[in-house]
Amino acid sequence: MHLHAPNGRAWGYVRYPLKLVTATQKVVAQTRWGGPFGATVSDFRPLPGPCHEPILAVMIEVNSLTKRYGEKLAVRDLSFRVQPGMVTGFLGPNGAGKSTTMRLILGLDAPDTGSTLIDSKPYREQHKPMHKVGALLDARSVHPGRTAYNHLLVLARTQGIPRSRVDTVIKLIGLEAVANKRAGQFSLGMSQRLGIASALLGDPEILILDEPINGLDPEGIHWIRDLLKELAAEGRTVFLSSHLMSEMAITAEHLIIIGRGRLIRDVSLQDFVDEFSPDLVHVRSPDAERLRAELVGPGRRVEAREPGLLEVHGMTSMQIGEAALAAGIALYELTPQQASLESAFIELTKDESEYGGTVPGLESDLDGADKPQSATTVEGSAA
Amino acid sequence: MSATATDPQTPSSDGPEGAAGGGLEGAIDGGGRVTQWRVIRSEWTKLRSVRSTGYSMLVAVVLTLGFGVLASITGLSHHTNASSFDPLARSLAGVSLGVLTFGVLGILAAAGEYSTGMIRSSMMAVPKRLPVLWGKALTFGALVLVISVPLVLATFFISQAILSGKGLSISFSAAGVPRAVFGAALYMTLSGVFALGFGAIVRNTAAGITSFVALMFVVPQLLTLLPAKIANTIIPYMPSNAGQAVMNLTRQAHTLAPWTGLVVCALWAVVSLAVAAILMVRRDV
User: Fold this and answer.
1) Which of A10, A156, A246, B116 is the most buried if burial means most Cβ atoms within 10 Å?
2) Quick check: A366 pLDDT over 50?
């Protein structure tokens, strides 16, 4: 969070909201103060200010957000930014405050303190809300007696989106067969698709989706992943919540991890993977004992789990391969072990709930609210 | 399904934008700004695209017309003599049931959004929120007015045709009759709008309908239990009593003057909308 200005606001930086202009994904950058003009991002330099790293743009900005529902503190002093051009994963166990944060970003609920900005304006002040942001919060935000087509038409009418766009979206989402069925008869998967359709209706710059893969069949999950990546590649902002690390590992480039309403990590997926990489390489060789003698050294640890299989810590697979070549030892297998991100995530959020109880101002009513979810997350990921 | 998104033959997928979002250019016409007029069109689409609207309108028509006709057929057979017989009141006997039905629909139109979850979609599409309330009140009020004017006219003329056979009818040109007949339609419209605001305040269809019916039809009865002086002062200002005053040919004791009554009824509608507006802006949805 070193990108924050001292007061948590973004005045110190240049913002370049990315907008897609051509199929070749050339971008038009636009300063906050100037009008839009064609240029490439590299033409810009950050203005002098407290921030020394250039930021391309901040499309979603959450500043010191706190929201309390009765006794329950759902979000506490949460700050983060979401940038365009990539899929940002919003990750946390059930009850961590993801949906609340999204509701606050979309102006459905008012924060107790702090603010949320969409492209530097509160959502409530957006003139073309559906063209700026497409959102899916809850698949059941639909009148059950209205057909899917009419539901989309009702939303389209509010901002002059033509009927042809409704037809396009229905085709895009694969709802043609049920477009004239009443939404109350939809399965969860179909409701979810209808929700995604309404999010895409305004052809939005920013997508905010709460657990979009919920209830989708494998084909649908695959499709939405590709779609979101494509939209991000066009320069749009995709902000996507999930309680499944495994899902985020496939879809997201950047992670914002929260637990119990607070920020735990704001990190790129690669950094997260590196941080939790177990630094372990499996090596299989017919001459394991001799190889082991070759590999041992300071800062390294080599264990023989079974005959012919070594577990090497402190060396990259490249170093091991070259050492083996130098010694003339054949290798049958050389496998760097990937971190189990799911377990890293559970470990992180478990930590959060453990020290959570000792942080001043942390209410006891939240204790235990998140802990059991860690276990269900594992099961959920397998399903 | 996924074939649609990736199929190169699909007209919408002539570029990466097309394949994914349907294209940024040309997809949105008219700038895509939220305007009050667009929200009104959206609210009209909402109203006409649920079955409850049609059913409620049908029920309102059947009850208003049916009871007026029934009361006219009954004519003099019940403990009434010709001198105290009020042919106008007979023909408008079903108006209260029409008010009830339109009121229930008004509550469904507003509170129904909250009980179904639709309100989240509506508020995300129109984040300033109030255009939705104004749009609802306007489209619903207009719909009730457009239905209730021909409804009361038909009810009046059919009923009077029946009564004329018994020599009991009153002419439309008689003093006060047009005011009473058109006033009945306005009473239905205003109480419908009142109910709509009420539904937006209560945000729950069951609670909204129950308390609306109570306020319109039960509370005035209960108020008669108060000391007569207080009761006679308060009761005429209750929404149903005030609205019904416009249908009186001759002013009766402890009722408001016809147009005064209608204005009071309109004030109830205005206050209910104003409270709904204040709450709609402030409350979380």
Assistant:
1) A156
2) no
